[in-house]
Design goal:
By secondary structure, this protein is of the alpha+beta class. It is built from 13 helices and ten strands. The protein is globular, with a radius of gyration of 20 Å.
């Protein structure tokens, strides 16, 4: 009992030292409430062409199937809210993609975290996850008391809104567990009312196949004609539901220098984006998450926007 308390305190202090905004811990096991929700969402084809969402259904709901002998899920939040926003006369990029690709930034922090845990506590086995394996990170973060799932289906915290990444360490270590917080969305429907494509089909349910982020990032084919007029000047991702959320009034700028963007990203206007070359794309988005769409994908998105009145 004393060890659990000591280990938990050490892990939370270490998370802070590594620059994470918050750390919450849950007992690893099957996510009973999420199972029927995920099944219904998939059955309604709300994942569109994101076939990977259909894979590893059981593992997605139970981290003990991902990490043998695991006992705890350590959930971590890392702030990415930028110091400066893009030029207002610009095609827009989701704030999470302004700087260095978060997968690499967080993976490095998690490797160090795991190393320190093993060094201090002894033989601890586990795995680090950053949005790259079948784990329901928002559900675990909510279970660990780091926030509640908002009507836009993002994790929300009273202190920090929603502009942060979520990551996990799943470990075979017994720890003290946190409890969920209450929902503070109340009667607010700002995110539902503002969504340009009506992707939030009902409170707490997003049709992924209607989301601007889906059209501009996940969709590999041409953007359908009907969607082009609804893209609201977003060329990569979309932040509308987060931008209008009252809880994001409390967002503070991050302190991770790797998330600072190339200055051109902030100053370019629409005309400059329309004339972007492969060379400039590689310079502005070196080591960025935007590379996921490749130059051809970003160009496709810009062309779709350019044709709109």
């Amino acid at each position: 009992m004393e060890n659990r308390s000591k280990h938990t305190a050490f892990i939370k202090a270490e998370a802070q030292r590594l620059g994470f905004m918050s750390c919450g811990i849950s007992k690893a096991g099957f996510l009973e409430e999420e199972a029927p929700r995920l099944e219904s969402w998939l059955n309604k084809n709300m994942h569109g062409e994101m076939q990977y969402m259909e894979n590893y259904f059981d593992k997605r709901l139970d981290p003990t199937k991902l990490v043998e002998g695991s006992k705890s899920v350590i959930s971590l939040l890392l702030n990415y809210y930028p110091h400066e926003l893009q030029n207002e006369e610009s095609y827009k990029i989701s704030k999470y993609a302004y700087g260095r690709d978060y997968h690499f930034v967080i993976k490095d922090k998690l490797k160090e975290f795991m190393h320190v845990i093993q060094e201090q506590i002894g033989e601890v086995n586990g795995r680090a996850f950053v949005d790259s394996a079948p784990i329901l990170d928002k559900a675990w973060a909510a279970k660990s008391g780091l926030g509640w799932i908002g009507k836009h289906s993002n994790l929300l915290s009273k202190k920090a809104g929603s502009f942060y990444f979520i990551a996990e360490l799943v470990v075979d270590l017994d720890l003290e567990y946190d409890t969920p917080v209450t929902d503070h969305c109340g009667s607010c429907t700002a995110c539902i009312d503002a969504c340009p494509t009506q992707a939030i089909v009902e409170p707490y349910k997003v049709d992924g196949s209607k989301c601007i982020s889906y059209f501009t990032i996940e969709l590999k084919n041409e953007i359908p004609e009907y969607a082009k007029s609804q893209l609201d000047d977003w060329m990569f991702g979309c932040d509308v539901c987060q931008d209008v959320c009252p809880w994001n009034r409390f967002s503070k700028a991050h302190s991770e220098s790797l998330f600072n963007p190339n200055p051109k990203l902030l100053t370019y206007d629409k005309k400059q984006w329309e004339e972007i070359t492969q060379e400039v794309f590689s310079e502005i988005f070196r080591k960025s998450a935007v590379k996921r769409t490749k130059f051809s994908g970003l160009k496709r998105n810009i062309d779709a926007l350019k044709k709109q009145p």
